[in-house]
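Before relying on records like the one below, remember that each one covers exactly one chain. Contacts with other chains, cofactors or solvent are not represented anywhere in the record.
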Amino acid sequence: MNLETFSFNIDEDGIAHAIFDVPGRSMNTLTGKAIGDIIAITQEVASNDAIKGLVISSGKTSGFCAGADLGEMGQSAGGGKPESEMSEAELKKLQFDRGFSLNKTLRELETCGKPIAVALNGLALGGGLEVALAGHYRVAANDNPKIQFGLPEAKIGLLPGAGGTQRLPRLVGMQEALPLILQGKSFTAEKALAMGVVNELAPAADTVERAKAWVKANPDAKAPWDEKGFKVPGGVPHRSPGAGQVATFSNAMLAANSYGNYPAQKNILSCVYEGIQVPIDAGLRIETRYFINTQQRPEAKAMIRSLFLSTQALSKGASRPQGVPKYELGKVAVIGAGLMGAGIAFEQAKAGIQTVLVDVSKDNAEKGKDYSRRLVEKQVSRGKMTQEKGDALLARIHTTESYDDVKGADLVVEAVFEDPDLKAKITQLAEAQLSDTAVMGSNTSTLPITGLAKASIRPENFIGIHFFSPVERMGLVEIIMGKDTTDETLAKTIDYVLAIRKTPIVVNDSRGFYTSRCFGTYTQEGLAMLSEGIKPAIIENVGRQSGMPMGPLEVSDSVGLDTALKVGRQMAAASGIDYSGNELGQMMAWLVEDQGRVGRKAGKGFYDYNEKGKPDRLWPDLNSQIEVKVDECPPDLKQEIKNRLLVRQAIEVARCFEEGVITDARDGDIGSILAWGFAPYTGGCCSYVDLIWGIEAFVKEADRLADKYGDRFRPGAMLRDMAAKGEGFYDRFPPAGAADSQAA
């Protein structure tokens, strides 16, 4: 055999040992070459009489296998043209044969008449776990704290396509298997043993010998489902009331949680339900058909591209300018110990960075450090952090009121109120202590960086570093380039963001930049619908059903209705409109100034909130100011509202590209999902246009909405040019650098 990703040997007892070790990779993935090797190994084991059994293991210390290579899969994420000369039947057969290739091979290995054992020294996810499940016996390491098993395909819009939807339910029953597959949850070696996913635990160094010992002792091994009289644990739906209830409840929960936006989950449920009731060979064919259907959906292509490939690339610094040495951060100062500054300080200290937390008084700075103390206490109590590590984290945060303590900092994050004069004063005080090579960053969500940099003595070192709240839970940082900001400063800032384990996107200067500007359109459209007389509950429910994390009115409450009123008046004045003369302006003024309902922070806004800050109900008196004209929501209205909410956001994103605020489609997609929660199943605003709609159809729909509701929906010249040329965002604004392929 000529193997490229495996080594292969046969010992004196006739036990073959296949060692998975993809060259040049830190982790094994199921590349096309790896699948080819598995096919060759299967044929050799089945046909060679000298081979009495097979043990499969990994040559990587990092683990067994992380799954399918999504880099290879993602190369077709934009959708290529099918073989033009094939008939529909020929094309479907070709697609099925390709999709069934690994499934077919693993089944042949499973039924080759010889015992197959798998030694798992580390993680086995996705296709990696599916390969292991095709073995008759699995030995997992019990001394690797990072070992994880799971089928995470659903998280990126796919379903397991190498037997996972068929073998796992047959092994552990539908009730255990369905949540794991539908949610893509991973689990530990101990849980895997308890469920029966693995058969034995042993030290990593002993897993291969234990597997070999089992192979020698079990020459006639079979998979449980190939034994006569096999019954699925817990039964199957058409024979067992319990299993039928599991399927029914899963379907109801799926509809309630996903609103039909995620085809993968629906197909997983159908795949398991149909496949479990027939022999496994038929079940594997059912799985492949659903896998192909899911893989070809635009949602899967969008989610693979954005949620995995682009996120991985940006999280590794794909936007970082080349030629600048890595910036080592020994000390970073955070100025302003409010909620945002306190969160930034915690994340820095957690990443091992010595942090100076500055405020107007030592007491105020200590109150900011209390935020970290509470987070540490919570994580220690939940077993997510040891007390020793928690104490070390807190020791890295030095509180002070003196700017002398900023001296020697490699980077400063100013995180005070959105007041240009105050920020200018802070910049001058901080820069007086900094070296010529240090970075001065401002955490601002709206104020133009070029304007703030006027207070700087080194504007080339001045940059925007926009965090999102709560900092410890939000994975994105928006980096804003000012007019004079250099590439060296950008590279240093990206190094900082990566050091604190966040994902950076890079945008150019503008009021509201990218995220704040586009995020606001969602709430604005919701308020516009409210002023039109659409019942608030309809707006909120359809907002969530469109894939957004909250309805637009709840988001408005979270931001603050007093802020919304202020912004609304400013925007109206800039446009020469009398904000107090329209229904929306009157209602907002009544809510905020007459009723004192300023949002979640006051416990009352569009919603009434409980003592934990959770929304109890929409305020019943809300309709007293605006007449409800639409109180029912048939399917066509639901789709219209969904389109308005999502298209409006995408139009603003397109305007940001047209104005040069953002220049990389990956930043557009990842920023929209991680910053303001744009419907993840779309892959982000750019992929929503490119893949869910298609550029021509999107422009046509935007024009229709503009004709009906106003020019805020009107596509600009850039979108029209893209539609005329058939270009998507990833064509016109391609990634600056190629991402390494990874797996899941």
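The radius of gyration is 28 Å.
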